Amino acid sequence: MVRRWGGLALVLVLGLAVGVATGAKQYDPGASDTEIKIGNTNPYSGPASSYGTIGRALAAYFKMVNEKGGIHGRKITFISYDDGYSPPKTVEQVRRLVERDQVLLLFNTLGTPTNTAIWEYVNRRKIPHLFVATGATKWGDPEGHPWTMGWQPNYQSEGRIYAKYILQHLPQARIGILYQNDDYGKDYVKGFKDGLGDKAADLIVLEQSYEVTDPTVESQIINLKNSGANVFFNVTIPKFAAQAIRKAAEIGWQPVHFLNSVSNSIEAVLRPAGLDNARGIISAFYLKDPDDPQWQDDPAVQEWRAWMRRYYPEGNIHDVFNVYAYSVAQTLVHVLERCGDTLTRANVMRQAASIKDLTLPMLLPGITINTSPTDFYPIEQLQLGRFDGTKWVLFGEVLAAR
Amino acid sequence: MAKLDEALVSSKLRYPWRASRVLGYGKGMAGGLLFAAAVVVPFFLSNYQVFQLTLAYVYAIALLGLNLLTGYNGQISLGHGAFYAIGAYTAAIMMERWQIPYGWTLPAAGVICLGVGWLFGIPALRLEGLYLALATFTLALAVPQLLKYFEAWTGGVQGIVLMKPEVPWGLPVNQDQWLYFLTLGVLLLAMLLGRNLLHGRVGRAIVAIRDHPVAAATMGIHVPLYKALTFGVSAMYTGVAGALGAIVIQFVAPDSFNVFLSISFLVGIIVGGLASISGAIFGALFIQFVPNYAQDLSKAAPWAIYGVFLILCMYVMPTGIAGFLRRLTRRWQVGGTADRAV
Fold it and tell me: How confident is the model at residue A223, as a pLDDT?
């Protein structure tokens, strides 16, 4: 009896060894010879539904990938559910994706509170939770949460980049800061102060905060002007950013104005604030803006437009969110291609955490994606741009956060 | 007096006294069967489905509370999402900040919401019908924002992440199943308490106030007291549901308790059946599952499909699912004659 079991074990071990040696296919739930299942949640309805275009653009991108033969012959099944930006709904939908639909991985789930709600769950279940659509810094935590990874430059990185620029170019800076009093605002300020290093205490003359529930930030702007600040670091969401820009112009305060990228939309912020009032503002960028005349003849932008027209004709051709979705989908395709025939969850994370100098067509030239088992921040470079009254004009080098 | 008689007769409460013995047994048997099914069902479903049913039960407890207020007492509330949020945050803060076992958070959430509901009920007494609906609506709007102000306690917009409760006493179930049974137990207790409350003197007073406040006052019912009390008890139910919801979801954030939640509760009690205890369960199943089905049917316009379902429900079952079932069973029992008397 013992001998029979021993023999069986030997056969099994041998089989396993041969299998590994010859590169046999290995699959976790959600992957097979013909298919890779990917799960996603997006706010197609509710208060944040303007982000919903990201989910639709992702689906359009994977449709193109499938038409071109898929990834090593496997078609992508992209399952995206509406969570309405409501965390309990995200928990429910993600459990549906993982437990019922049996997806191989979760990809680009959108929102900071929504991803926080599923953070522990996906890490306990060991489901790859890749390239989440939020700029919070906490997603790069390979030790505590080895299955979750961000994608876009995080708020702290961006803060550090402004600080770097100020140290180099504005040695006489007296800095005033306005920030939203929550994790998002504090994240930015922390990165900014880290970037200034031990100079922070000398350079920053006044910090003002506001609550997201406040009606205006006008008194804060007046205080900042009276503090004598000649550099303004503006960490506000679109509504307050427009107010701040307008108020500063009204009271004749003309600092060097750094505006966080959360609010650098011309249509949503600068136009309501008055384009003339916004002249000279500096912000940070990592994607090509399809409306920027300097990319008019750029082959990558033309290819993006062709893709939009063919696969997502109902989408808005001026919306940078669609550029974002296109690029983040390309990053995932890169990772899945590198997985080869070993489509296990562990291997997906291994490949996602070993990207070397990946360039994407719609990233600004010079920006590359790099990750490692200890670095879960894929994009950490940005380029500054100055608003000239009609458009953002990029200047200087691509800056790295660290 | 004639008017009062009419009022009492129109209320659904008179039903138990008129029901035939046979019908009583039938109802008991149906209830027993449903209970048996509810106990067995988690062992045949996936954990995800168990989790969904648990959420439906949580909503059912909240709907019981709202139904007490709106269905039985006639006060409309568009703000019960706020009490749900207060209950949820009570549980989350107790568990995460003070490391108190989750079991204790349920009574605490109930007591706090009873107090808040009572206090809110006192000024709300001056408001009737739609005006009260508007006043409570502000509560639903304000609470998620207020939560962001007390960041040290509530975690601000980022909310609070909770740990999933372990299964106690080495019971042979997994964590999802344990939460299911815990919620089922609380739901049954809530139904029992609600039934006892409503089928007694207090219940008759609550319903009389809905049907004819002047007549009720003439009969010696202290209308303001009972209205505030009903508001408090209703908020208590919803608060307990909120605490359970937080434990089941393991996360609270202001975004979890938007205005839509309050409106969903109202949809739930109307679809389920106003002034009906079992209606809370049907309504909860509706608000839990129908949006998902709608999304399966159409990715492009799930809420339009949801709307169609809602209109169909109201058209086919104007008295809600519970009212519809009651009519069916009556017709079956008494051969259709009793229907006219309803």
Answer: 95
Task: Indicate the pLDDT class of residue B334, thresholds 50, 70 and 90.
Answer: low
Whether residue A142 is found in the same domain as residue A188: no
What is the distance between the alpha carbons of residues B4 and B219, in angstroms, rounded to a whole number?
9
CA distance A256 to chain B (A): 30
Contacts of A82 in chain B (CB under 8 A): 295, 302
pLDDT 10s digits, B142-196: 888 888 778 778 877 778 888 778 888 877 888 889 999 999 999 999 999 999 9
Answer whether residue A290 is part of any domain. no
- Please tell me whether residues A210 and A267 are part of one structural domain: yes
- For CA atoms A343, A347, A353, A358, the dihedral sign is negative
Buried b (16+ CB within 10 A) or exposed e, A338-374: ebeebbbbebbbbbbbebeebebebbbeebbbebeee
Pairing of the two strands A105-107 and A35-42: parallel
Could you read off the pLDDT of B92-145 as tens digits, one per residue? 999 888 888 888 999 999 999 999 999 888 887 788 778 888 888 988 888 888
Q: Which of B46, B156, B252 sits opposite A182 (nearest CB)?
A: B156
Contact status, residue B102 vs residue B247, Cβ threshold 8 Å: yes
CB A287 within 8 A of CB A320: yes
Helices B175-198/B223-249 angle, 10° precision: 170
Domain range enclosing B149: 2-258
CATH code at position A390:
3.40.50.2300
Q: What distance in Å separates residue B202's CA from the closest CA in chain A? A: 36
Rounded to whole angstroms, the Cα distance separating A284 from A234 reads 12
3-state helix, strand, coil in chain A (%, to 5): 45, 20, 35
Closest partner residue to B161 (CB to CB) among A98, A120, A182 is A120
pLDDT of amino acid B55: 94
- Distance CA(B294)–CA(A352), nearest Å, equals 35
Distance between CA atoms of residues B82 and B246, nearest Å: 14
Structure-block tokens of residue B124:
């709300």
Which of residues A258 and B217 earns the better pLDDT score? A258
Over residues B269-285, the pLDDT tens digits come to 999 988 888 899 999 99
B252's enclosing H/E stretch is strand B251-252
Closest residue by Cα to residue B105 from B241, B229, B230, B253:
B241
